[in-house]
Design brief:
The structure holds two protein chains of two kinds. Chain A is α/β, with parallel strands linked by helices. In chain A, about 35% of the residues lie in helices and about 15% in strands. In chain A, a hairpin with a 2-residue loop joins strand 7 and strand 8. Chain B is of the alpha/beta class. In chain B, about 25% of the residues lie in helices and about 30% in strands. Chain B is built from six helices and eleven strands. Chain B has a nine-stranded mixed β-sheet with strand order 2-1-3-4-11-10-9-7-8, with helices on both faces. In chain B, strands 5-6 form a two-stranded antiparallel ribbon. In chain B, helix 1 packs across helix 5. Chain B is globular and about 45 Å long. Chain B starts with about 20 loop residues before the first strand and ends with a helix. The chains are: A alpha/beta, B alpha/beta. At the A-B interface, helix 7 and helix 13 of A face helix 1, helix 2, strand 7 and helix 6 of B. Bound molecules: zinc ion.
Chain lengths: ~425, ~260
C-alpha cells in the first residue's frame, strides 16, 4: 500500500512537471513512472470506485466526455479527458482525482482486456469497430474475436458470489460489436448507427453474407441478427429509452454520430442511476473536445476543426460539413489535411475507401505531408481541388468567413499547434 | 508488346468473344475483398480509359453472384482471412474467372489477391486451394511485411519503377510458368528478392489497395492488354499529380 501511495504521488508530480515544462499534458509520462514503481497501481487506484469504460474505433473520446458530463450529476468524476487511452493514461487520471467516486475511462480497443481486468468496471460501453491504421493494428475481424473472448469471460465473474457484475452497453447496429458483446452475460443494446458498413459484410460467427434491410441486419447462415435496441434516436432531437422514456437532447456538437454518442452516454449513465432528464442538460454544455469541433477565429476566418482518423470517421465528418452549410449562401471552403506518420498509420490506401463526392460544390484545399496522395485521390473522384504547402497558405488563400478543416491525427495536432492550442 | 495469353498456361477459347463496344471492368467480390482501398484500382482504370474516349462499364460482382465471362479486365482485391477463404472457394466453384482468362481477359490481383489466384495459400495452418491463374504457391512468412515497396519491373513490360505499400503475412513462391513482376529494391514482396508475378495478361502484386494510384503506367499496361493494343498506342494523359506523388514517395524511401 505504501508503494501504491508513493507511486500515486510520483504520477502527480511527473504529470505536473511535464505540463510545466510544456512537454504535453503529462498523462502518459506520469502513469508510466507510477506503474514502474507499482505495477498494480491501476488496480489499486480503481478499487472502490464506480468505473465505466468506453471503447470502439470511433467516437470514444466524445462519448467519454459526454458520459463524464452525465455522471457529473453524482459528484466528481475521474476521466482521461486528453485521450490518453492506454493504462498509463488511466493510471494518471485516477491518481489525479483521488476523491472521485466515479471514473469514466476511454480505452484503446486493443487494451480492453487489460483495463477490464484491472478496473473491474460497472459498465463497459462499446461503440463500433472498423478499419483503422491497418498497417499496425490487428485486422478488425480479429479484434472482434478478441473482444468476444474478453467479454465472454465476464460470465465467470458474474457467477462469482459477491462480485459486482459488469454490464455491457453495446451498439446493435454494428454486427462486429454485436457479435463480440453478445458473449457477455448482460447487454443493454443501443441503436447507435453504422454509416460505414464495409467491414461487416460477412458474418463474424459463420462467414455467411449478412443480409441488410434498412437498419435491420441478419445472418442467413446462423442465429446472429440485430438485437432489439433498448435505446435509440427517435428523431434528431429525441432519445428513446426503456419504459417509454422520450428525452429531448440538444447538443452543441455537430452531426448525427454525436447524437448517437449521446444515446450511448445516456444509456450508460442510466446504469449508474442518472436519469436522462438530469443528464441531458449536462450533455448540452459540451462544446468541444480537445479542440475537436472547436471554432477558432483567426484573421477574420472562423475555422472549425474536425478530426477524422479513418474512413468511417471521414464519412461522419462530411456529414457535419453538410449540416453547417448555410442555406442560400455558398458553402464554406473545406481544407483537408493528411499525414501518415507512425501514430496516423503509415498507409494512405484508406483514402480510396472514402467517397469525396459530397464535397463537390465546396472549394476544396489540400495540405499535409501526404497532400499528393490526396490530390491523386480527388482527381480520380472528380472533385476540383487546390494543393497548398501549409495550413497558413490555406488560411491566406480563402476569403474571410468560414473555413471547415478536416484532418487526421497528427495533421490535426499540427493545425491546433498553429492556432495556439485552441480549445 | 501484347503478350500471348497462352503464356498463362490456360487453354484459349476463341469462341468466347469479348465485348467490342465498350470496356468491361469486373470487380470480383468487393464485399469480401476490399480491405485496403481496393476500389481505387477500379476507379483509376475507368478514369484512364475514359480519358482516352473509351466507354467503360464497371461491374462489381457480389460473392453470391456468378462471375461473368465476358469482362475485359478483372480486379481481385485484398481481404482478411475469413473473407479470403470464402472468396477462394466461390471463385473455384464459379470458374468464370478462369474462363475469362482463357478468352484473353486481363487480371490485376493485389495483396491477398495474388495469393488467391495462385495454386494454394495458407490460413491458420490450413492449405486453401486458389483460383490457379498463376503458377505460384503461398505460405506464411516469419513476420508481417509492412511498409513501402519499390521494385524494378521486368524489362519486358516496359514500365518505370514500381512503388506502393505492402502489408501481408504471406510469401509467394513462383513456379516456372510465372515471371516475377519486379526485382525488390525496397521492401519484401514475394520473398525479399522478387515482387509479384505475371504471365500472359495476368498480374499479381503485393502492393495493396490502390496500387495503380502510384503506378499509372501499370494501369495503362493492363488497359493496353484489355484493348489488344501496344502500350505505346495509348494517347498520353495529364499525369502531373500521379507523377508528383511518385516522385515524393520514391524520394522518401529510396536510399540516396
Ligand atoms: Zn452467421
Amino acid at each position: 500500500m505504501v508503494r501504491a501511495q508513493l507511486a500515486t504521488a510520483l504520477v502527480r508530480t511527473a504529470a505536473r512537471l511535464s505540463r510545466m515544462t510544456g512537454r504535453g499534458d503529462g498523462s502518459v509520462i506520469g502513469g508510466r513512472i507510477g506503474l514502474a514503481v507499482e505495477p498494480r497501481l491501476l488496480t489499486v487506484l480503481a478499487r472502490g470506485r464506480q468505473v465505466a469504460l468506453v471503447s470502439g474505433t470511433n467516437g470514444k473520446t466524445t462519448t467519454t466526455r459526454l458520459l463524464t458530463a452525465a455522471l457529473g450529476t453524482l459528484g466528481p468524476v475521474a476521466s482521461n479527458s486528453y485521450g490518453a487511452n492506454m493504462p498509463t493514461g488511466h493510471t494518471t487520471a485516477l491518481a489525479q482525482s483521488p476523491n472521485a467516486q466515479h471514473a469514466v475511462l476511454e480505452v484503446d480497443e486493443h487494451y480492453l482486456r487489460t483495463v477490464l481486468a484491472e478496473t473491474r468496471p460497472r459498465v463497459v460501453a462499446l461503440l463500433n469497430l472498423s478499419r483503422d491504421q491497418l498497417d499496425r493494428a490487428m485486422e478488425v475481424g480479429m479484434l472482434a474475436d478478441r473482444w468476444r473472448e474478453v467479454l465472454g469471460a465476464l460470465r465467470e465473474q458474474a457467477a462469482t458470489p459477491g462480485a459486482e457484475p459488469t454490464q455491457v452497453v453495446a451498439n446493435c447496429d454494428d454486427p462486429l460489436v454485436t457479435w463480440a458483446a453478445s458473449a457477455a452475460p448482460q447487454v443493454i443494446w443501443v441503436a447507435a448507427g453504422q454509416r460505414w458498413q464495409e467491414d461487416s459484410w460477412v458474418c463474424p460467427q459463420c462467414g455467411a453474407h449478412l443480409k441488410r434491410e434498412g437498419v435491420d441486419w441478419a445472418c442467413p447462415g446462423c442465429d446472429l441478427r440485430r438485437p432489439q435496441p433498448t435505446w435509440w434516436l427517435a428523431d434528431d432531437d429525441t432519445v428513446a429509452g426503456p419504459d417509454g422514456i422520450r428525452q429531448p437532447v440538444t447538443l452543441q456538437l455537430p452531426g448525427r454520430v454525436n447524437r448517437a454518442n449521446a444515446v450511448t452516454a445516456l444509456a450508460a449513465a442510466a446504469l449508474f442511476g442518472v436519469r436522462p432528464a438530469d443528464a441531458a442538460p449536462r450533455l448540452a454544455e459540451v462544446a468541444s473536445i480537445a479542440g475537436r469541433y472547436a471554432t477558432v477565429e483567426r484573421d477574420g476566418r472562423s475555422i472549425r476543426l474536425l478530426l477524422a482518423k479513418n474512413p468511417a470517421g471521414w464519412l461522419e465528418a462530411f456529414d457535419m460539413v453538410d449540416r453547417i452549410s448555410p442555406a442560400g449562401a455558398p458553402p464554406p471552403p473545406v481544407l483537408l489535411s493528411i499525414n501518415a506518420r507512425v501514430v496516423d498509420g503509415l498507409d494512405t490506401s484508406w483514402l480510396y475507401d472514402v467517397d469525396y463526392a459530397s464535397l463537390r460544390g465546396h472549394r476544396v484545399l489540400v495540405t499535409g505531408d501526404r497532400r499528393y496522395d490526396l490530390a491523386v485521390r480527388l482527381e480520380v473522384n472528380e472533385v476540383p481541388f487546390e494543393v497548398v504547402d501549409a495550413f497558413t497558405d490555406a488560411l491566406a488563400a480563402v476569403p474571410p468567413g468560414r473555413l471547415e478543416v478536416i484532418a487526421n491525427y497528427t495533421a490535426f495536432q499540427d493545425i491546433r499547434a498553429e492556432l495556439g492550442r485552441a480549445n | 508488346m501484347p503478350t500471348d495469353p497462352a503464356a498463362s498456361g490456360l487453354p484459349i477459347d476463341p469462341a468466347a468473344a469479348r465485348s467490342d463496344s465498350h470496356l468491361r471492368i469486373v470487380w470480383v467480390y468487393p464485399d469480401l475483398l476490399s480491405t485496403y482501398g481496393d476500389r481505387g484500382n477500379l476507379l483509376i482504370l475507368a478514369r484512364r480509359a475514359q480519358a482516352r474516349g473509351i466507354d467503360v462499364e464497371t461491374i462489381p460482382i457480389a460473392y453470391d453472384e456468378p462471375i461473368p465471362r465476358s469482362g475485359d479486365i478483372y480486379l481481385v482485391g485484398g481481404g482478411e482471412d475469413r473473407p479470403q477463404t470464402l472468396a477462394a472457394q466461390r471463385m473455384r466453384a464459379d470458374g468464370g474467372l478462369r474462363a475469362a482468362v482463357s478468352a484473353g481477359a486481363a487480371v490485376l490481383a493485389v495483396c491477398a489477391g495474388i495469393q488467391l489466384i495462385g495454386e494454394y495459400f495458407h490460413i491458420d495452418g490450413n492449405r486453401i486451394a486458389g483460383a490457379e491463374l498463376l503458377d505460384l504457391r503461398s505460405d506464411r512468412g516469419e513476420s508481417r511485411a509492412v511498409g513501402e515497396l519499390v521494385g524494378e519491373v521486368d524489362p519486358r513490360l516496359g514500365l518505370p519503377l514500381l512503388t506502393g505499400f505492402e502489408n501481408h503475412g504471406g510469401r509467394c513462391h513462383l513456379g516456372p510458368a510465372a515471371n516475377p513482376l519486379a526485382k525488390v529494391l525496397v521492401g519484401t514482396g514475394n520473398d525479399g528478392k522478387t515482387e509479384g508475378a505475371w504471365a500472359g495478361r495476368v498480374i499479381g502484386t503485393y502492393l495493396h489497395g490502390p496500387a495503380l494510384s502510384r503506378n499509372p503506367a501499370l494501369a495503362d499496361l493492363v488497359l493496353s492488354w484489355a484493348l489488344d493494343v501496344p502500350l505505346t498506342a495509348l494517347p498520353p494523359i495529364d499525369d502531373s499529380w500521379p507523377e508528383r506523388l511518385r516522385a515524393e514517395r520514391l524520394a522518401a524511401v529510396l536510399p540516396r
